[in-house]
From TrEMBL:
UniProt source species: Hemiselmis tepida
Family to which the UniProt record says this protein belongs: Belongs to the WD repeat coronin family.
Annotated protein name in UniProt: Coronin
WD repeat residue numbers: 47-89, 105-141
Gene Ontology MF annotations: actin filament binding
Signal peptide (residue range): none
Gene Ontology biological process: actin filament organization
DUF1899 domain location: 1-39
Keywords carried by this UniProt record: Repeat, WD repeat
A single GO cellular-component term on record: cytoplasm
Length: 141
């Protein structure tokens, strides 16, 4: 597990999955099925897309298989991993999930420390950065 000094979700979860930043080059994080029994793999498959550590994670309240990540690399990424979910609601990753499986939201000039989905407005995402800005994103576009 990686360390984060921001007031953010170090661990994010919903009714099916838990996500947490992971140590490694760039800013990987992993998503684990809450229904899975046993330990994490010794070298788990991770979501790879940031070039610096992940500061915050937040699952979409409208889709259990969509998660947003905020990073020190000044970007926010929105990941849809529904194609990786098995029929028994498990998550199957044969390899690390590449950045091509995400949408990058750019606009901040310093590290992004917080990301939150709007609780009732679908596809609205908020991000907060050390550049002293708060951005609202329409991720449906």
């Amino acid at each position: 597990i990686t360390a984060s000094s921001a007031d953010s979700n170090i661990i994010a979860g919903n009714s099916r999955f838990v996500a947490l930043p992971w140590n490694g080059g760039g800013g990987p994080f992993l998503v684990h099925n809450l229904g899975a029994v046993g330990r994490f793999e010794p070298i788990p498959k991770t979501f790879q897309g940031h070039s610096a550590p992940v500061q915050d994670l937040d699952f979409c309240p409208f889709d259990d298989c969509v998660i947003a990540s905020a990073s020190e690399d000044t970007t926010v990424r929105v990941w849809d991993f529904s194609s990786k979910v098995t029929a028994d609601n498990g998550i199957k990753l044969d390899s690390d999930v590449p950045e091509s499986c995400s949408t990058s939201l750019t606009g901040h000039s310093k590290k992004v420390t917080l990301v939150r989905w709007h609780p009732v407005a679908k596809d609205v995402l908020l991000s907060v950065s050390y550049d002293a800005t708060v951005r609202l994103w329409d991720v449906s576009k």
